[in-house]
Known about the structure:
The protein folds into 2 domains: 4-93, Elongation Factor Tu (Ef-tu), domain 3 (Beta Barrel); 98-241, 2-Layer Sandwich (Threonyl-tRNA Synthetase, Chain A, domain 2). The strands form 4 sheets. A 6-stranded antiparallel sheet has the order 4-3-9-6-7-8. The chain has a 4-stranded antiparallel sheet with strand order 10-11-16-15, covered by helices on one side. The chain has a 3-stranded mixed sheet with strand order 1-2-5. The chain is 19% helix and 38% strand. By secondary structure, it is an alpha+beta fold.
Amino acid sequence: MTEQQGGTTRLDWEDQALREWEAVVIGSDAEGVVLDRSAFYPGGGGQPPDHGVLLWQGVQTRIVGARSGDDLYLIPAEGDPVPPAGTVVRAALDDERRTLLMRTHSALHLLSGVVYRDFGALVTGCNMEPGEGRMDFSLHEIPPDLKERLTEACTVEIGADRRIDARILPSAEAFRIPGLIRTATNLLPPDIEEVRIIDIVGLDTQADGGTHVASTKQIGRMEVVKIQAKGKGGRRVRVRILD
């Protein structure tokens, strides 16, 4: 993983706080719009893609999704005009959506760290929308007050204001980190050369390509709202951001 995807420089990997920037359209067809520089997250790891707009020559193109491929393709809203190649655009993310997704994604990593620390359970699946998400764990035996215990433990870790760092490491160095893969199945390709790491310092270190807040305190209040059985020996934990 590098900061380049096809012809696009991935600004979201450089600066997760970036919301507006200038770019040049280098491709525009039925696949979508390709920019030379983009902070749109294309989705992955359970996190859905960003929304936003492109402003160009007095015209607005709404972006309702993004997709990874040979390039990073931005998906325009149906019926909106599409800027041709060579156009200089002003791009902007939907700040409310992106920020809430960052808080939600970091909350799920925090939950994963707490469950792994306290119960030794691995993640078997996850998904999220802005402000809510679910994570599946290989939890075989659970106490009757698990929902309350997890909410309390996550609240303590949020209050600890742990720093959340993102960095890209050579794969050989990354795989020397103990517990780097917290999923029951390693989803990273065997020939990957670089790995992006998200580190909730002192609690959780995982390979991850998504966007996150800078500290656990920025997650805000969260609660575990439901715990469900998920197959043999599995539990689905649902969480939401409260403010």
